[in-house]
C-alpha cells in the first residue's frame, strides 16, 4: 500500500483540454480547467495536457514526415540554422559540452508564421524541392502549440487575479519552435543502459509546450528531489511546463521545475517544443507583491538571463536566484 501511494504521489497532474475552445476564453470547461492549471503550475510547475486539437494525422505528418526529412539533411546544411552570437541557444544545436550529447536540434525563432517557416525551409532546401509540404505541416502543428500556450497563459493570469496584463504580455511574447532528435544508446543486449541526452536544467522562458513522439525520455524533478519519467497519459498528450521567466514575473507563485532528457533502447527519440520567450522586462506586477509575498527577484530582461545561463554552463543550480535573487 505504501509503495502504491508513493507512485500516485509522484504522478504529474493530467488536465483534459478537450472541453476547452482556445478561441473562446471562458466558454465550456474553461473555468474548471483553469483551476487545475493554476494549481498544477504552482505545485509542480508542469502538467500533462490531453489536447486533441493536435490531431493524430498532424502528429504523424510532423514526426514521420517533416522531421524525418529535416534530420536526414547533411550537418553542413543544418548549421545554416543560426541566429547569431546575440541569440545563443536559438538555432542549430549539437554537441554542446557538458550539456548535450548525441543530440541535435533546429529551431524557427521569433514567430512561427508561414513566412518564417518558409524562410527556414528555403534555408534547408534552397532549390525549393518538396518543402511546401514541410511548411504546411510545421506551421499547422506550431499553430496548435501556440494556441495552447496562449490559453494556459490566459488561464494562469486569470487565476492569479492579474488578467489585465494578458494582452500586453502576449504582444511582447515571441515563439521559438524547436525540433529535436536524441540518438538512441543501443539495446540492452549490447550492454547499453539509459543515457542522458540533455542535462539537468530549468527553462529560461515563460511557458514551454512539449510533444514527444513514441519514445519517452523527458524526466522532471519534483520539489522534493524525486525524478518522474513523463509518460504521455493518452495519444493526444502534450506536456506544458513553466520556466524561470514566469516564475520571476509571478513573484514565485509558479514553480519552474528542473528537468532532463534520458533515453534507452535502440530507437531515436524525436520531440517538438514551443518556447514562449518574453521580450518585456520581467518584473512582478504590484498585485503580486505584498507583505506575505515580498519581492523575490530583481527586474531583468530574459535575453540577459539567457546569456548568463549560457556562460554558466551545465551546473545544476538555481541560476535565476544566482542572477537576480533578492
Automatic annotation (TrEMBL):
SUPFAM superfamilies: Clavaminate synthase-like. It holds the Pfam family 2OG-FeII_Oxy. InterPro entries: IPNS-like_FE2OG_OXY (IPR044861), IPNS-like_sf (IPR027443), Iron_ascorbate_oxido_reductase (IPR050231), Oxoglu/Fe-dep_dioxygenase_dom (IPR005123). One of its GO terms (molecular function) is metal ion binding. Residues 173-278 form the Fe2OG dioxygenase domain. PROSITE patterns: FE2OG_OXY. The keyword Cell membrane does not apply. Keywords: Dioxygenase, Iron, Metal-binding, Oxidoreductase. Belongs to the iron/ascorbate-dependent oxidoreductase family. 2-oxoglutarate-dependent dioxygenase essential for auxin catabolism and maintenance of auxin homeostasis in reproductive organs. Catalyzes the irreversible oxidation of indole-3-acetic acid (IAA) to the biologically inactive 2-oxoindole-3-acetic acid (OxIAA). This is 2-oxoglutarate-dependent dioxygenase DAO.
Amino acid at each position: 500500500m505504501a509503495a502504491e501511494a508513493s507512485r500516485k504521489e509522484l504522478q504529474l497532474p493530467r488536465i483534459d483540454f478537450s472541453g476547452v475552445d482556445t478561441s473562446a476564453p471562458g466558454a465550456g470547461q474553461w473555468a474548471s480547467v483553469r483551476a487545475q492549471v493554476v494549481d498544477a503550475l504552482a505545485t509542480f510547475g508542469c502538467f500533462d495536457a490531453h489536447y486533441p486539437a493536435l490531431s493524430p494525422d498532424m502528429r504523424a505528418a510532423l514526426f514521420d514526415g517533416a522531421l524525418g526529412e529535416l534530420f536526414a539533411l547533411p550537418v553542413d546544411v543544418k548549421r545554416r540554422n543560426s541566429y547569431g552570437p546575440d541569440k545563443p541557444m536559438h538555432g542549430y544545436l549539437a554537441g554542446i559540452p557538458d550539456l548535450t550529447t548525441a543530440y541535435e536540434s533546429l529551431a524557427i525563432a521569433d514567430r512561427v508564421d508561414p513566412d518564417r517557416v518558409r524562410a527556414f525551409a528555403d534555408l534547408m532546401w534552397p532549390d525549393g524541392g518538396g518543402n511546401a509540404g514541410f511548411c504546411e505541416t510545421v506551421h499547422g502543428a506550431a499553430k496548435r502549440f501556440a494556441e495552447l500556450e496562449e490559453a494556459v497563459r490566459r488561464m494562469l493570469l486569470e487565476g492569479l487575479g492579474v488578467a489585465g496584463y494578458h494582452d500586453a504580455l502576449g504582444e511582447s511574447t515571441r515563439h521559438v519552435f524547436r525540433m529535436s532528435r536524441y540518438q538512441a544508446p543501443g539495446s540492452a543486449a549490447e550492454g547499453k543502459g539509459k543515457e542522458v541526452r540533455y542535462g539537468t536544467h530549468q527553462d529560461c522562458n515563460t511557458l514551454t509546450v512539449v510533444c514527444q513522439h513514441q519514445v519517452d525520455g523527458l524526466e522532471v524533478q519534483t520539489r522534493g528531489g524525486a525524478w518522474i519519467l513523463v509518460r504521455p497519459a493518452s495519444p493526444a498528450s502534450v506536456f506544458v511546463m513553466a520556466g524561470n521567466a514566469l516564475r520571476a514575473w509571478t513573484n514565485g507563485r509558479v514553480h519552474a521545475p528542473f528537468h532532463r532528457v534520458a533515453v534507452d533502447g535502440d530507437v531515436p527519440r524525436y520531440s517538438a517544443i514551443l518556447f514562449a520567450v518574453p521580450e518585456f522586462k520581467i518584473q512582478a506586477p504590484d498585485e503580486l507583491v505584498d507583505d506575505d509575498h515580498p519581492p523575490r527577484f530583481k527586474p531583468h530582461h530574459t535575453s540577459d538571463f539567457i546569456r548568463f545561463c549560457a556562460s554558466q554552463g551545465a551546473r545544476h543550480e538555481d541560476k535565476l536566484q544566482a542572477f537576480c535573487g533578492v
